[in-house]
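If you are new to this repository, start here. Below is one unmodified record pulled from the training split, so you can see the exact layout before writing a loader.
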Amino acid sequence: MLNQSAKRKVNFYYQKLFYVLVATIIIFTKGFPAPSIAAALLIKETKDIITISSGDKPMLEYIQTSNPNKVYVSKLFTPSGIQILLDSPHDHIHHHGLMYALDSGKNITWWLDGKKMGKQVPVGKTETKKEKRSAAIKQALSWNTADGTAILKEARTISVHKGTDIPATLLTWNTVLSVAGKDPVPLATKKHYAGLGIRFVLKMDKIGLFIFPDGKNSTAVRGTENVTPDTWCAYRTAIDDKPVTVAMFSAPSNFRHPTYWFTMTAPFAYISATLNLYRDPYTLKPGFDLDLTYGVAVFNGKQDKSAIEKLYQAWLKLLPEK
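And here is the target side for that same chain:
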């Protein structure tokens, strides 16, 4: 048995040892990032819909079947869970959330819906892949005429990125278009808005402001509609008095980079990454690919140019080399 004096000495020894160990841990871990406690990415799939979530928080919903003429992202959420996309509103029923569509001359359009319009038709099974910091949807699509003739082939990949260093819901949309037959395909249109477009929920209409890193060469088209070449474009607005910022990014590898951004705030808000085809048509030839990569970032709050530019630069580092 230890007497009281001996017990005090033992306790003092162990207390001193404890403090030394704590100090050692602090010294050797200084400068190292704290371990991530971010929720895991989850993928759920039904016959028509693929949902990607972070834990119990939804990030996006993807319609993987033709609805009725397009395949698209129908829902997209801020990190706090605010949904920003509008699908098939009564004023423009062919607007479907986040969608990609073009025209081919006067007679073929994939922008509009209807039995006489072109249709994006899935080919084979949609693939999904989940990694630690990303989840991806990969799909092959045939861009057909109304009678079912294949004109274009698309290889589409939509990736959602996750990390404690990403302050927004961030996705990458990659579309690779090629000719389905033996003849060149003219990509010409009078639609200055055709491309990768976003239709926003009604509460985001009319009250927002579009910002660009430069934005000096903007061309007014009609009303509030403009076409502006730049590396990115962002829309700052609000839903139920909650500030929201939505940014679209263009990869430097894109055809006709910097992208020509179509924007409008009224009578409804819209943004689209276009190829300026209404002023400068392009013909896609057999054996060549049109490889396009864009980013979409959805922030909580009102973000300034520096915050958007910072995420744009971080997004560029996530892209594979081309």
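Two things worth knowing about this chain: The helical segments are 4-29, 305-318. Residues 4-29 form the longest helix (26 residues).
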